[in-house]
Amino acid sequence: xSPLDTPGTANVGDPAGTPDATLVADADAADAADAAxxxxxxxxxxxxxxxxxxxxxxHAYRYYVLDSPTVSDAEYDRLMxxxxxxxxxYPQLRTPDSxxxxxxxxxxxxxxxxxxxxxxxxxxNVFTGSELEAWAARATxxxxxxxxxxxxxxxxLAVDLVYEDGFLVRAATRGDGRTGEDVTRNIRTLSVVPTxxxxxxxxxxxxxxxxxxxxxVAFTELNTTLVAAGAKPFAxxxxxxAGSLRQKDPRVTATRPLSMIVHGLGVHRGLDVAAxxxxxxxxxxLGLPVSHHHQVVGGVAEVEAFVRRWGEHRHDVEHEIDGVVxxxxxxxxxxxxxxxxxxxxxxxxYKYPPEEVTTRLLDxxxxxxxxxxxxxxxxxxxxxxxxxxxGLATLxxxxxxxxxxxxxxxxxxxxxxxxxxPEIVGPVVDLRDGSERAFVMPTxxxxxxxxxxxPDGEVDVRCPNTVSCPAQLRExxxxxxxxxxxxxxxxxxxxxxGLLDAGRVHDVGDIFHLSPESFEGLRxxxxxxxxxxLRGVEQARHRPLWRLLVGLSIRHVGPSAARALAREMRSVDxxxxxxxxxxxxxxxxxxxxxxxxxxWFADPRHREILERVRSGGAQVADAGADDGPGPLxxxxxxxxxTLVTWSRDSATEVVQARGGKxxxxxxxxxxxxxxxxxxxxxxxxxxxxxxxxxxxEAGFAVLLDA
Length: 706
Ligand code: IVH
Hints:
Helix content: 25-40%
Bound molecules: 2-(butylsulfanyl)adenosine
Radius of gyration: 34 Å
CATH superfamily of the largest domain: DNA ligase/mRNA capping enzyme
Structural class: alpha+beta
Number of domains: 4
Number of helices: 25
Largest sheet: 6 strands, antiparallel
Strand content: 15-25%
CATH architecture of the largest domain: 2-Layer Sandwich
Distance between the termini: 86 Å
């Protein structure tokens, strides 16, 4: 027997008689005599009264709960008047729940228990490919499954929606699977959930299951607002979703950017679909929020590929996902496979390894970086998360500690998403015992005792002692020698700290003056190690200019700005002598970076460092910088697409060697755009729009030979 035919399952009325009960009053007419009387009213009149009641409820709701009416007060009054007139002629239509009988705005938000029309089951989990295959083998033992539906497992909270004749009449949380909480008014504040289904041909009855979630990017913002208002922050987006939906006052829910994705079908009448994927198609037509990421595949190998793919892209969706759900697509086969007492046999959840754990925040300390930035970080009780053991986690700045609402001693949620640096998400407030204490940002540098400064309008606190703060020197030498900068083999953190502590180097300028004597009497430096370092230093003398620029730890100058500067200016001297305007005009360098460069070079101590770099034999200009005018002097070239003869770097070098410039984007100043295979459409289009001559690779070769 179809669940629809089961006696009692059509009872979607709210037992506590919230205003929504009006919407189903006809269907619910338990009293036979009343039903007979109602039947005497002309069908059109009865339909109009029901429509007015629904619309009035909707308008009152938008007015009182959403603060967002869609009709004027006058129009509202007109509709109310029309309904009252009908009820005067036909008093039997005047139910206690009619909008004419209620005080508008008296919305009850106590969560009333509601029975789901059809039980809401849970899912069994698998964690490995072989468990997934074993599950699929069981599912296909007696059935021929040729279509599997793969979709994302949204980390939110399950809800059940009931639509009657296209109107959302009830929404409930899952509860124990049989009985949930009535959250109709809260759900109706979600902009993605239609209160009325779209299209002419809406099903008579539709029970929908889905997941309500809190978009990941909005989560931090919510916690910031909560903490600022002295309220309790949420530990993660899922809790934020549940907490936001299950608000007594739906106006609070309305302020939260909750969203929803539908993933199941319960009892339905008037919807003829043979497969889950087909149901999604219909649901989308009806205006329901269906995920774009589901996919029907033919075999388990493809299911595994889907699982793998999304494992790599798990952070590319707007909500958190904790796995993939695999379903047998055909409803006929789903019915044949049936369910255990807890979960269906036709679906399974493949769970990804957790990226979130809880641990104790033992202390908050601060670290002084190479540019003097003072950063708080959490010292944690070490814990394993996403494949590694984590004992430290950055907290970025004092504002962030405050915004996250974490206290020293808290149990915190720690997150390590993929390869990303571990992050403290928030505190588990309910586990506090009163012994926790707030972090206070120090006012003096923990390494050199200089008074810290916080420049106007900046979130970061800094140690202004850029020249002799041991922490800054240590970090800047380490950075100078690191892979991203001059890449000095053998010169790691320990070496940098050892040389500095022993007074053998004082700043990065001394690195190019290291000699075997510099290591005399130092522990841990054998002959081989010393040779390795000195070889590394010699190689570093010949690195391109951009690497030296990165290595100097000029605030805001990272690899891309450094490359842009080197490309256009070609020598440290040209950069040092340039005005803020000239620097800011370099493609890829803005006014902030330009100002920071000018500041850096204005400091005589920095100029001294540069002189030490120069006198140590390091190259401070790229090839061709001082050769005087070349055949391409004054020519600016943009290269797009792949060239056969040149790599991007070698093409840049040959242009520069002839006195020309290579820039990243096309402008009126561009002399030629060189187009290789698979060019970027925007550069090519822009070249055409600005009428910049376009050269192919052969034309480029001719230009170089000219
Ligand atoms: S289908 C019969 N699909 O995960 C149960 N559930 O851990 C069918 N969930 O209770 C559920 N994303 O609340 C399904 N794409 C998805 C889902 C999903 C998240 C939730 C759902 C379920 C829980 C089980």
